[in-house]
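Case study.
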Amino acid sequence: MAVTKVEIRSGAYYDSVVLMQLQRALADLPGVIDAGVVMGTDANKEVLQQSDLLTEEAKTAQPDDMLIVVKGEDETAADDALGKVDSLLSRKRGEGVEAAYLPKSIEAAVDMLPDAQWVLISVPGRYAAGVARQALEHNRHVFLYSDNVSLDDEISLKKDAAEKGLLVMGPDCGTAIVNGIGLGFANRVRRGNIGVVAASGTGLQQTTARIHQMGGGITHALGTGGRDLKEAVGAITARQGLQLLIDDPASEVIVLVSKPPAPSVAEKLLALARATEKPVVVDFIGYTPPARRMDNLYFVSTFDEAAELAVSLAENPPQPEPLPLEKFAAGQKYLRGLFSGGTLAFEAQLILKEYLPDVLSNAPLDPSLKMKDAVVSEGNCIVDLGEDEFTVGRLHPMMDNDLRIRRLLKEAEDPEVAVIFLDVVLGDGAHLDPASELAPAIADAKAIAADAGRYLEVVAVVVGTDEDPQDMDAQITMLKNAGARVETSNDVATRYVGKLIRALNPTPESTAEKLPPVDGAFLSQPVAAINAGLQSFTDSVAAQGAEVLQVDWRPPAGGNEMLMAILMKMKG
Amino acid sequence: MAIDIQKANDEATNRMMEAHPVLVGLGTARDVIPGMRDDLLLHAGPPITWERASGPMRGAIIGALMFEGKAKDEAEAEKLVTSGEIKLEPCHEHDAVGPMAGVTSPSMTVYIIENKTHGNKAYSNINEGYGKVLRYGAYSEEVLERLRWLDKVMGPVLADAVEMSGGIDIRALLAEALHMGDEGHNRNKAGSILFLKALAPYVAKTAPNADVASDILKAIGDNALAVLNPVMAACKAMADAGHGVEGSTIVTTMARNGTDFGIRVSGIGGLRSETRWFTAPVATPKGLYFPGFTEDDASGDIGDSTITETAGIGGFAMATAPAIVTFVSGTPKDAINATMEMYEITHTEHKFFNMPVLDFRGTPTGIDIRKVVEKGITPRVNTGIAHKNAGVGQVGAGLVRPPMEMFEQALIAYAQKYGL
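After joint prediction, the assembly is written out as follows.
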């Protein structure tokens, strides 16, 4: 037999919503058939009447009274229910129910976390480019983990990003480390002074892990995605990343890792890498490098070698001597080599190939580089004065300096000449005191240039020993006093000359197709990221102590292609 | 054709926000509402026929025809409507809005809201209070008696009082109420008290005697929804000001008739003529029910009160009204999250309506159909819940989402109109 019990509480004001909740909670109790909780107004009593809950007692409630009516299956059930009113009213909600708002779009996320520099994207491939575009629209760098993004999309994303000075790492970029925070699948690697650009996720992981194991550390490791070094993409991201590391004072050594790039792309990338004084360790896996080392570039063929070399360079970074570029007048750009030793001249040409495209000679490496007339210098040239054409009817230049001195003074008058490169070969059979004749000539040559408002760099490589009859030290001192830069290694001397002339002749590659600069300030800011896709990426960034906001991402327009197409058109 | 949608939406939402609705008077529907005729009833939502009308809508139509003296009972009323002798047209096509069934007949007294910035007007009937009321489809003698009192006693006194007051600034009232725990749709407690405060000094003077003054002030004071109708008309005046901006994708109408939900979009079609509704079947709200009722008793979603969300308050300003978040068994944090979500689908933040809890951030304003479709987020609407049968009344309150199909249809229509 159903029993209806009533409780009237005076002076207790509760919002109607609280009352309705209490009522629902009471009605849900075992043995309760129905319940009503209202303020005792006439209108409310009428409502109770309709539900057959308005007992005589209930009718006495005043408008300011809280009126609680419980219809139970029996008296106990009704009483029990009324006994629970206070606990139901004061019921606290469990902790953790107050979930923060998860944005559903990049737009909203950017609004909520304006400091975010990065948007991490791991949504299904067919939507990934769209999300990346939104990130770029909001001027955020992109870490694009998703795969199955078309090459066309990759190219257009990277071009748009480059225009805005933004990075798109990926698609299919598994890993990166920025300012000590790993994005995607990164290892926990010590901070240090080695910066990495990698077009290979696991290559990046192996290289940075080995650097860590060998005691080194990294500044940033930037991923590019595996297709970045393809001809069609043109290494946009790798070039941006490389430039960022070049400009980053903390990155003293740079490592460049990739599967073999397209030749034209390798050229672009290496040209950029050469534009810095910082050592760059290049590991183009399976690529045949033009040399083991090119100036500041070190070529290796395994991740391990890359790590090892980077760590050793990082411990003792080479301190490159600044080139005296500011001393030269405009228009001074050519090298004139005046050699007495044929093979020294040959080796110089060989080494210079790494620095300069076309060095002419009367004894060239390749017939196409043959000087038209050995007596008339043109462009960059290395003249072997020991060749037959010069020695007919006169002594070899190792014994007779006369021809070389006249040529030296003549070159000094050429306003396009910047560097004169000489060898001075000592030893038995050679001139007994070549410096006594060459040094004054060098001084004269430099004076000729100086009088004309120019600067002439004279580099001499002295081939000899301290036991030679000429007194090598005295010879060197004389040459130095005349203003020459003196080396005893043809390799070192040639590389110095090559670097200098290269710097005076900007190559077409390094000027053409320059990407707009990426402002590197974000690299030194604490990482803050927005993540659309895999929750584990958010968790891992958060676990590393960086700010991260997960987007509750869903396919645009529920994945409806027709609506998506309209929306795209509306974006214009 | 190159349309600058962003610019169009800037203009539409700016017009909505700059609109300055003021209650300037009350009048008889047939005299003041444009296009009102003796053979016409206005109703909530998009167009509806008797055949498809829900229980509460039918009940309100019957009640209104009895109130007008055109029908003596249900059968006569039905005949008048089905024969075409009496026409049904949406309030929204006559610059008007009405809560729940929203049925407005020629003799009813209505509030007149004027947008002081752009000059357009909007109208809404007088709120009847709680219990058995016409807007929920009740049409018993006491309901009709109440309507007659509103019409004959309260209406004239309020009309004089409003005139004497020089007008009541509803935008300012709403802005203040939003700082007092109202969201302007389901919770209008503070706003109604502010309304009472604004009217009382003049009602005291314009009422024929103290008893009438007392009755009127009590009717307003006891009714926490007293201000809802002028608020809705104010929202209507604001939303209408944003309508008709070429190229705009901003929603300027959301309304339900108990059978269909309908929306209109600023850049597609007119307000009164050549209007273009996008409709889909209504959902049933989720929420809390009064004693003795459950979701099985609920009518489909009904009423023009979604004009509040359209104008940037109501469910969109949930963050400022944590007291009512429990309608959907949420926490105060959920209230904030509800507003945060609406920022995702709106064009801007309101210049005049802001929320202290979000550091006085403006409410999300101007629903953009593009964002709704792209993000898959439909507007959040707070609503009262009507009983599915005519005449029973309100059975609860809660939350409802408009059907996504309408926004998709609107997007497709936009693409067709603008040749995309």
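Observations recorded in class. The longest helix of chain A spans residues 434-451. Residues 21 and 37 of chain A are 9 Å apart (CA to CA). We will return to this complex in the next lecture.
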